[in-house]
Amino acid sequence: MTTDTPKKSLWRRLALPLLGGAVAGFLAATAFLNLVEIDGGSGLGPSREIAGLVGVIYALTGASVLVGALSPGFGAKFLNVEDADELREQRRMLSLSGVAMVLLGAALILLAIAGEGAFVSAEIGAVGAIGLVLVATWLSIRSGRHTDELQRALSGDATSTAFYLVFFVGGLWALLAHLDFVAGPAPLDWLTIFAASLLVASFWQTGRRGLLLRGPN
Q1: Residue-wise pLDDT tens digits, 25-62
Q2: Could you give the C-alpha distances from 212 to 18, 70, 216, in angstroms and in order?
Q3: What is the pTM of this model?
Q4: How far is residue 20's CA from residue 173's CA, in Å, rounded to a whole number?
Q5: At 167, phi and psi to the nearest 5?
Q6: Can you tell me the distance from the alpha carbon of 36 to that of 81, in angstroms, rounded to the nearest whole number?
Q7: Which of 18, 127, 138, 208 is 20–30 Å from 39 (CA)?
Q8: Which of 202, 209, 72, 94 is nearest to 150 (CA)?
Q9: Phi and psi (nearest 5°) for 193?
């Protein structure tokens, strides 16, 4: 005799992960903005602060993936997977990807707080950010060797979508700036657009395939 264990409804399964992610993101963003306040109460400026917040999202997402990969039983409760076995099967790929995301987030945060009038010198910011990006790229390449056909297709589609997002968002901004309607994007703004576009594209392509609707059991 077999009995089927009823699964929770989708929203009940996703409620805790979504709430936890929202709280963690809010706390991390608040901590970053408080830490980067310059004497006198002024912040780093919109470009730097937005770049730093995108970096925080990268680092937080990567850390969540890494925790789930290292502790599948716990990770299955908040990551978008069917069960802990899925995390165990993909542990190597997820671990490499998680560390790469953390490093990319750290690179963006470092750039946000580096330069004239900031907390870190331009030289340290440049060397540190380049080093973090190079290591993250190496880890991403290694991670790609452990992906299946669906994951490779998803990665390719996300990269393509990110390109179009950068083209339309960055291109429209540059066009309007050229015509003196708005201030032009700063170099850091372009880096933020690149990073944010890849995040948005990844979630978009994942959602298109219905992979966001699984949720933890």
Answers
A1: 777 777 777 776 755 555 678 888 899 999 999 999 89
A2: 12, 21, 10
A3: 0.82
A4: 34
A5: -60, -45
A6: 35
A7: 127
A8: 209
A9: -60, -45
